Write the C-alpha cells for this entry.
Amino acid sequence: MYLYQVVKRRQLAPAIVLFEVEAPRVAAKVKAGQFVIVRMDEKSERIPLTVMDFNRERGTITIVIQDVGYSSCMINNMREGSSFLDFVGPLGVPSDIENYGTVVCMGGGLGIAPIYPIARALREAGNHVISILGARTADLLILREEMEAVSDEVVIVTDDGSLGTKGYHSTGLDQILAQGHKVQVIWAIGPMVMMRAVANYTKTLGIKTIVSMNPIMVDGTGMCGACRVKVGEETKFACVDGPEFDGHLVDFELAMQRLAFYKDEENRAKAHGACGQEGGH
Amino acid sequence: MALKIPRHDMPCQDPAVRAHNFDEVALGYTEEMAVEEAKRCLQCKKPTCRSGCPVEVLIPDFIKQVAEGDFLAAAVTLKEKNSLPAVCGRVCPQESQCESQCILGKKGEPVAIGRLERFVADYEIKFGESHAEKPAPTGKKVAIIGGGPSGLACAGDLAKAGHGVTVFEALHVAGGVLMYGIPQFRLPKEIVQTEINNLKKMGVEIRTDEVVGKITSVDELMASGYDAVFIGTGAGLPYFMGIPGENLLGVYSANEFLTRTNLMKGYKFPEYATPIKVGKKVAVLGAGNVAMDGARTSLRLGAEEVSIVYRRSREEMPARAEEAHHAEEEGINFRLLTNPVALHGDEKGWVKSMTCLRYELGEPDASGRRSPVPIPGSEFELEVDTVVVAIGQGPNPLVTKSTPGLELNRRGNIVADPETLATSKRGVFAGGDIVTGAATVILAMGAGKKAAASIDEYLKNKN
C-alpha cells in the first residue's frame, strides 16, 4: 500500500488549491489529458480530477481542486504532509498530440489547470500554441505564469474586464483570427457552459474543437456508466472513451442535466459535514 | 433414522422489518441447530454431494466434525478446498450444486450443506485462531489481475503451494463483486474482508488502486519478473437496453446503483459521502440475481413500489429461487412478460415513465428457452421515477485491449483451454467471468482453483 502524501500545497485563488502528490507509479505512466480518481479517507467519495502536471523524476502528480462542495472542501483543507487514502490512475485516453500547426488552448476558470499539460505537450510536438485564459474576474485567473511558459502567445479574457480583454473565450478567439492566424484545432476545457459556448461558436467557424468532459464518475474504469455522455448518436463512457470528445458532437444540455443529478444530496452533505477542519490523515 | 430429523430452516429477519434495513437477512444456525442438521448426513461411502461442488469440498468429512461438535476442526477441513467458505456458504446456489446431489434429497430434503458451511466459517471467524501456516517459498512469482472470486481463489491456492502471489486490484478494496455487487444484507462486507485478511496472512500481497491496462500491462508484469499471470477481471461492463431515454436522470446501471450502495456505503449517506438517489416508484429491468439485489436494495433505500420488469415468465427467470422468494416476501412486484421500449422524462430530464409492451412466449430458441414475442398493440405506460438496468454485463476490455497476442472470442471474452485455463499467450492463464461471461461466484472460484493447479504445474516445468 502506498502513501499518497501531499508534498506541496499552494493556494492559487480563493477556494482553488494546487496539490503536488507523491504517486510514483501514476507519475511514471501518465500523459496529458488523463485523470486520476482520489479518495481522501475511508468515508470519502471517489472524485475524478484531471491531471495538471506530473514529474516523473520526483514521482509526483499535481492536481488543482476548487471548493464546490463537501468533498472538495475537505480536500482543499489538506496540509502538506497529510495523505490521500486512494489515488488511482492514470485513467482515460490521453490527448491526441501531434504537430497540427497552430493550435489554440482555451482554459476557463479551474479548466486552466488541465489545459496546461496539453499546451505543453502540443508545444513540445512543434505546434504554435496560442492560449486563451478566461475567468470571471482577475483574482480567479490561475496559473498565468505557467501557461505563459508553455505558450507562444497568451490572450487573457475576463467577464468583467478586470484583467485582459473584457469578454469571453470567443472574444479572444476573434482577436487571434483577426491577426490572421490559421487555427487548425482548438482544445477547450472549463465549465460546461463555457465549453458549450465555445463549441457552438467554433462550429460556425468550422474549426475542430476538442473538449474535456467532467461528468459524475464512480469507479473511472468503465464498470458503471455513471459518466455516460451522448456524442453524436452514440452513448460513450467518459472515463474510458474520453474524457476528451469532439465538442461539435457532444450533447451539452444532457451533460449539464446529468451533472446536477445530486444537487440536493450535495447540499445535505455540506450541511451534515464539518468541513473547515483539517482533512487527510 | 436421519430422515426423521427435519431439515432445519434458516432463521431469518422478519420480511416486514428487514425490508427497511441493511442488516443480514439470514441469521445463521445456532450451535444446536448445526449439530442436529449435521446429524442428518448419512456419511455416504461415495458422497455424490462432492461432485456437485465446483471446488469439491470434503463435505461428509466436515459435516461429521460438526456433528461431533468440533467446529474448528471442521473449518480446517473446509479450508482445504475452499479459501472463502463464509462467502460460499452464503451466496452459492446450493440447490443446483452440492445439495442437488445429496441422497436425502431424493425422498425428502437434502442436508443443508451451505448453511453448515456458513455456520462453520462464521464460527471460525468468531472463535478461531488463524492458523495460516506459511509454506516453503518456491521463489516463483505470480501476478493475479483482478481481486474478485476467481483471483482470490487462485491466489489462495498458489500461496499454499509456496509461490509469491501479488493481486492487482483496480478498486480501492479487493473482493470484486463480493464487495461492490452483492448487497450487505446478503453478504456482510466485514465477512469478505476477514476472509481476504486470511489470504494476506498466508502471504498474498494485495495491491489496490492499480488498474492493469493503465498503470501497467500484462507484458510489463511478465518482463518485471512474474513467472506467470492469471487474468480474472470478470464481467464488469454494464449493458444498457439501447432504447430511447436511457440517459435520463434516475436511470442507473445495476453496477452503478449497487457500487454506490455497497462499495461506497451510500446507504449510510451522509455519514459516508457518496450519495445514492432512489425515488418512490422503481423499475428494475431484468430478472437475474443482480436484478433481485437491485430491487431489494431499492426498497431498503426507501422506495415505495418496486417492480421487477422481465420479458419472459417466472419459469425462465435466471435468479435463484431463494432470492426471488425473499424479494417477493419483502413486497417486490413481478411484472412478467413485460418489457420497456422507451423511457420518457420531465422538463428537467428526470425519468417519469416507461412505454412497455406485453409479451407472450413463443418457440424455444437456440438456448432452449422459449423466446419472448411482443404482442402487437399491447403498449401501456408505467409510471416510474427510478430505473435500474440489470440486463447483464460483458467483459471489461481494459486488460484485454492492452494485451497483444491474447485470443478473444466474438464477445470479447478471453479464449482459454477448458482443462488448463491457459490462454493463447504463454504463461498467461484466465478464468471466471472474463472467460465464461457473467456466471456465479462459485464457478469463478472453481476456475481460479483450476488455474492455480495448472499454473503450479507450469511453474514446476519452468526453470
